[in-house]
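Job type: complex structure
Entries:
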Amino acid sequence: MSKLVECIPNFSVSKEVDPVVFQGLVDVANSVPGCTLFDVQSDGSHNRCVFTLIGSPEGIEEVAFRLCKKASETIDMTKHVGQHPRMGATDVIPFVPQTKDVTVEDCVEMSKRVAKRIWDELQIPSFLYEDSATRPERRNLAACRKGQFEGMPEKLLQEDWAPDFGERKIHPTAGITAIGARMPLVAFNVNLDTDNLEIAKNIAKAIRGSSGGFKYRMAVGIMMEERNIAQVSMNMVNYEGTPLYYAYEMIRALADRYGVRIIGTEIVGLTPAKALIDCAEYYLKIENFHCHEQVLEYHLIDMK
Amino acid sequence: MSKLVECIPNFSVSKEVDPVVFQGLVDVANSVPGCTLFDVQSDGSHNRCVFTLIGSPEGIEEVAFRLCKKASETIDMTKHVGQHPRMGATDVIPFVPQTKDVTVEDCVEMSKRVAKRIWDELQIPSFLYEDSATRPERRNLAACRKGQFEGMPEKLLQEDWAPDFGERKIHPTAGITAIGARMPLVAFNVNLDTDNLEIAKNIAKAIRGSSGGFKYRMAVGIMMEERNIAQVSMNMVNYEGTPLYYAYEMIRALADRYGVRIIGTEIVGLTPAKALIDCAEYYLKIENFHCHEQVLEYHLIDMK
């Protein structure tokens, strides 16, 4: 079995604004055998790009470090302009387990090794966030990044905001990086047959605030302007603890109170198969199903 | 992307009755690089074993031929005794596409090349069955096998039963083999909250006979003695044409007529992820879902 880890580093540069620097990062992303650059997203107005890499734990650690190094050599945060909040040339590096023999704990260890190395070799400090966080308030990326690049020198001097690795000062041009491990996210949106945004907002608030053990990174009500319908938009951060069908059935029940129905849903981007297979298992009432043993694709992945 | 094909050859020997011959086949199954012997089932009363192999199309063709050769050298059908119907030392060789870039048509071509080779080199004739069949009545394996090893010399002389490859006479000790391509099967059973077997039989009959385009190799009503409940047992032969949720919802509707509910279901053995993901897509009303692009595991398989 080959262990696979996903890494989704975000850099403060875009193909649109600086194609040469952007291409330099793409080249580095392709430089480590056993790691595949799987997807690249770039946004000019954000002046930010997001790489999706998958590979062996060792390969992913190496490519994450090399990318950080390249970004620190080619991106100058003192000159960076973009709409997206950011605090470093390499702004954030999440590590996500992708095969069943890799745990979040393994990814936490990876994040700490990479954080140590980028301090030791590049003098870039870092916060550990998400499941790597050393204190509860650092789990949230937005809390770590608050103040952004410009506010970081002062923030790092506050009692509670010493970096997890490195001294209390940013790298002069590369800033500071958030590094952490997390479970795969599933972006799951539920469309309602109403143009009343308040209903979607109320539902989002109710499921966020649920005491039933629901766990979403984010659940908000938004308008789908082009279809004139309201949507509950969620990031499912732990689809094993809070399956998609929990969210679907809870929203269905809450919407019913308003006489509103679910007219459709969407999954944005990638999802692990199991997030959907668990739903089939629920709706088809499948007994004694052993997903990793009975689903062929897991064996195909294992065989390689 | 690596193309993968599954092959599930059945041999007229068992570990229980003749461990030496059985082991010889296992050794051959492991002899082709790029092919993995994934599962072995052996049944002493049937005196039969089933290998599950997955590998590249070229590797699978080669291992299928080598296994046929080894079986013809070590199994003597004139001495074979077992409860399961059989007509050859290698009784049947199905080829099943397992990655999205391999089609059933590719597997049909594989089946024909292997059939030609075992005639040319081993003088074992064969029938092409399932999606490789050259006439409708040969799609069904049981129809091909009717008469079994002992009845084959006479059957092959009948006007309609010339082998697809080879002359109208069996190999004296290896008999004749059925070779064909098919889609992956999903064995899907639905349990009813009744001890009335007739209800399960009626439902099975109704869905078999459906004019709604349903396609099952088999749908029968059976008793689950240990739980004292009736079950509709199905082999879904084309889960893309007839998804599992069609079967589930149809059985639910038909059972309702008797005041009977579905209390659970089961999937026996392996299933492709997509057979279940399609169900999640239906029940969660997911719009515009592109399974092969959005499900991570397909990319993990592609990457290898």
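Summary: Chain B is about 35% helix and 25% strand. The radius of gyration of chain B is 21 Å.
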